[in-house]
Amino acid sequence: MTNPILKDSIIVADSVDKIYPNGCHALKKVSLNIKKGEVVVIIGPSGSGKSTFLRTLNQLETISDGTIHIDDINLTHKETNINKVREEVGMVFQSFNLFPHKTALGNVMLSPMKVLKKSAKEAEAEAKDLMAKVGLADRMNNYPSHLSGGQQQRVAIARALAMSPKIMLFDEPTSALDPEMVGEVLDVMKSLAGGGMTMVVVTHEMGFAREVADRVVFMEDGELVFEETPDRFFESDNQRLQRFLGQVL
C-alpha cells in the first residue's frame, strides 16, 4: 500500500541527517514534503544547512540517516539509479559552470544529445525555444565570456530545463550577480513558477520569497526551524526567525 504522504508529494525528506567525517552535524532530522507544482523557498543564515539540504535532493550530498523520496523513488536505496533520477531534477548553482568553448546554444544542446541521445537537429530546435524562453534569443551564438553574469545564469537555467526536469533546484542563483542583474534572473524563475514547475529555492531574496513562494522554510544550525505560507511566515513571532529577519531586512 502506497504511503499517502508519498502519493501526495513529489519530494519527501524524512528525518534527514548529514554528519561529515570531521564530526560536523550539518543536518539534524530535517523533514520536508513538497507537492508537485509547489514553490518552496529556503532561507537562513550562512552555515545553516540549507544548501547542504538542497544538494541531498539529488544526492550531490549523501545523507547519514533518514530517507529521501523523489517521485516515489527512494534515493538512498542501493538499487536506485541516481543518475536516472538526476535527469528529472534540474539544478542551478551560484556559479554558472558553462563550457567556455561552446556557445550559449551549444551549452544548452549538450546534455540532451549526450544523455538523452537526441539528434543535433532536435536538440538545437528545443535549445532555441529555451533560449527564447529565458529572453536570450539574440544571444544564442555568443560565448560565455561575451555574456553578462545575469545572461550566463539564464543560459544555465535553460541548460537545466533542456533535460525536461520535473523539479528544479536553485542554490542561491543570484548571489554571484551584480545587483542590476538579479532582476532578470528572478523574472525567469517567476515565469517558471507561474508555469507550474516544482521548485526548491535557496535564496536571500526576500521579495522573491514573498511574491512567488507557496511556502517559506527557515533553517538554522542544521535544523528546519519554521515553515509557513509567505504572509504568515514574515509575520510570525518565532524568535529565531525574527532575529534572522532583523539582520537581513
UniProtKB/TrEMBL annotation:
CDD domains: ABC_HisP_GlnQ. It comes from the Bacteria. PROSITE patterns: ABC_TRANSPORTER_1, ABC_TRANSPORTER_2. It holds the Pfam family ABC_tran. GO terms for cellular component: plasma membrane. GO terms for molecular function: ABC-type amino acid transporter activity; ATP binding; ATP hydrolysis activity. Its EC number is 3.6.3.-. It is found in: Cell inner membrane. Keywords: Amino-acid transport, ATP-binding, Hydrolase, Nucleotide-binding, Transport. It is a peripheral membrane protein. Signal peptide: none annotated. Its main location: membrane. SMART domains: AAA. The keyword Hydrolase applies. Residues 11-246 form the ABC transporter domain. It is an enzyme of class 3 (hydrolase). Belongs to the ABC transporter superfamily. PANTHER family: AMINO ACID IMPORT ATP-BINDING PROTEIN, PHOSPHONATES IMPORT ATP-BINDING PROTEIN PHNC. This is Glutamine transport ATP-binding protein GlnQ. It comes from Marinomonas spartinae. The gene is glnQ_7.
